[in-house]
Specification:
mainly alpha, globular, two-stranded antiparallel ribbon, disordered N terminus, 73% helix
Length: 499
């Protein structure tokens, strides 16, 4: 494959094809490239639909039939929500592979958006467990395909040394959270007023709006958005098709025989995320398309991966432990009116919208003087641990004041801004050229593992003895954060000039 090898070699040089495709000095969208606005929009509406659905999903699963739910055991439902969230991020592998080897990021993103909309329609129209399964599979696979490719396209707007990159991802992240703010407010209100299926229908409408807006602007994306970085040779397509078929058969057998079932699905998903991560790293390390410098950068990513998984194991408990806590222990009375429990999940996006721009401006102003990515990760994990330790004074029999939980969720937000957009950014900066989108998928695998663990950990929470839960989880996060900070000098050496 001389043509493919030559293309990859060209991409590895300092003046890459992607670099030459970028308009010089493009600052038309708040000082950033114009196409950031288009990607901002599609991600905003996708997050509206995703978080709108997730805001009421756990309640739909464990509420009684009289309440419009499916009457699944509460602990099992929390584990299943965690497993579902982990599955969403696990499916980024498929979306990234299809983009890097077959279709390019733009086409995969468009197809994934259609699949997401179909999933929300299934949840809205199909009753019972069949509707739940069909909807979650479609939304899960579609969201995984969209997330990795939207992130990769944002990364392609900036050069490797462009100091605007972290700020650009913070702006992009603000778009995510505008959708995350509005989604639960809309679906939570509709669910309490008209029922779960009307709430799921609103999520479908939101995704349809995002799809229309993106369709109108997709032709204006640069040619790079349609490029396939590492095309799969025609002679290998049958072999890979058989591999995928074999994987589907194995999954079918595991589910059909009951080896993987509702009770162990969360743990099975965690094992799958770990196995996929190890395989991914092995394939990247042994690839002849990866240079020595790129391999060192991948090694530097490993401790960041571990820190990210630990962070998300705590942060994603917004949809498991905190969802139950908000329904059962939080005082949601506002001047005689009880706020829907799903609205609690819009508190974090409010803070993100307010402070994401502040953080973006801070990183831009500091430029080369800003903390390195490992230190930002360490700060995020430390603050996340402190957020769980802050639950300790609230442990007891009484109701938790709403303002107290708002304060804790502010710590969630601050931690998120130090780690999540930086994780998206650093995964594109440390990515080998031949594995650009797939390196983003590797970061999302850490999110997959953490999200699955969030469901498993939520099952350990005992409302009658809360102290061990908060102390154990918060304490472990603080220890890991200190360890990462101590290892930062060694990690920076491996990063090969990338901050």
């Amino acid at each position: 494959m001389p043509a493919v090898s030559a293309s990859i070699k060209k991409m590895s040089t300092p003046q890459t094809t992607a670099e030459s495709a970028k308009p010089a000095g493009d600052t038309s969208f708040f000082g950033h490239p114009k196409m950031l606005a288009s990607l901002f929009s599609v991600e905003m509406w996708e997050r509206f639909s995703f978080y709108g659905m997730q805001g009421i999903l756990l309640y739909y699963m464990y509420f009684t039939a009289e309440q419009g739910g499916l009457a699944i055991d509460q602990g099992l439902a929390a584990g299943l929500v965690g497993a579902y969230g982990g599955g969403v991020y696990l499916s980024t592998i498929l979306g990234a592979w299809l983009a890097d080897r077959l279709f390019g990021s733009e086409k995969v993103l468009f197809g994934s958006a259609i699949m997401i909309m179909a999933g929300h329609i299934a949840l809205a129209l199909l009753p019972g467990i069949p509707g739940l399964i069909a909807g979650l599979v479609l939304v899960g696979v579609g969201s995984g395909g969209l997330k990795a490719n939207a992130t990769a396209l944002v990364g392609s707007l900036y050069g490797e040394k462009d100091e605007r990159r972290d700020a650009g991802f913070s702006i992009f992240y603000m778009g995510i959270n505008i959708g995350g703010l509005i989604g639960p407010l809309v679906t939570g209100f509709l669910q309490t007023s008209f029922g779960f299926h009307v709430g799921f229908g609103a999520a479908a409408v939101g995704m349809a709006i995002g799809l229309v807006i993106y369709s109108l602007g997709r032709k204006r994306l640069p040619e790079e958005a349609h490029r396939v970085p590492n095309p799969l040779p025609a002679k290998d397509r049958t072999r890979y098709g058989l591999i995928f078929l074999g994987i589907l058969i194995v999954i079918g057998v595991l589910l059909g025989t009951g080896l993987v079932n509702a009770n162990n699905l969360a743990r099975s998903m965690a094992y799958a995320a770990i196995a996929a991560s190890v395989i991914y790293l092995f394939l990247i390390f042994r690839s002849p398309l990866v240079t020595g410098v790129e391999r060192k950068r991948v090694v530097a990513f490993i401790p960041l991966y571990i820190a990210s998984a630990a962070f998300w194991a705590l942060f994603q408990q917004q949809f498991t432990f905190i969802a139950v806590y908000s329904q059962e222990k939080l005082d949601r009375n506002l001047f005689g009116w009880e706020m829907p429990a799903a609205w609690v999940q819009s508190i974090n996006p409010v803070f993100i919208i307010i402070f994401a721009g502040v953080m973006a401006a801070l990183w831009t102003k500091l430029g080369s003087r800003q903390p390195s990515s490992p230190l930002k990760f360490s700060a995020g994990l430390l603050i996340m641990g402190l957020a769980f330790l802050a639950f300790i004074p609230l442990a007891g029999e009484g109701k938790t004041p709403l303002l107290a939980l708002v304060g804790i969720l502010f710590l969630f937000t601050l931690a998120e801004l130090f780690l999540s957009p930086i994780g998206l950014s650093v995964s594109t900066k440390l990515a080998p050229q031949a594995f650009h989108t797939q390196m983003v998928a590797l970061f999302f695998l850490s999110v997959s593992l953490g999200t699955t663990l969030a469901g498993i950990l939520a099952g350990l929470y005992n409302p009658k003895d809360e102290l061990p839960y908060f102390l154990g989880i918060g304490g472990v996060a603080v220890v890991l954060a200190i360890g990462l900070a101590a290892a930062t000098p060694a990690i920076k050496k491996l990063m090969g000039g990338v901050r």
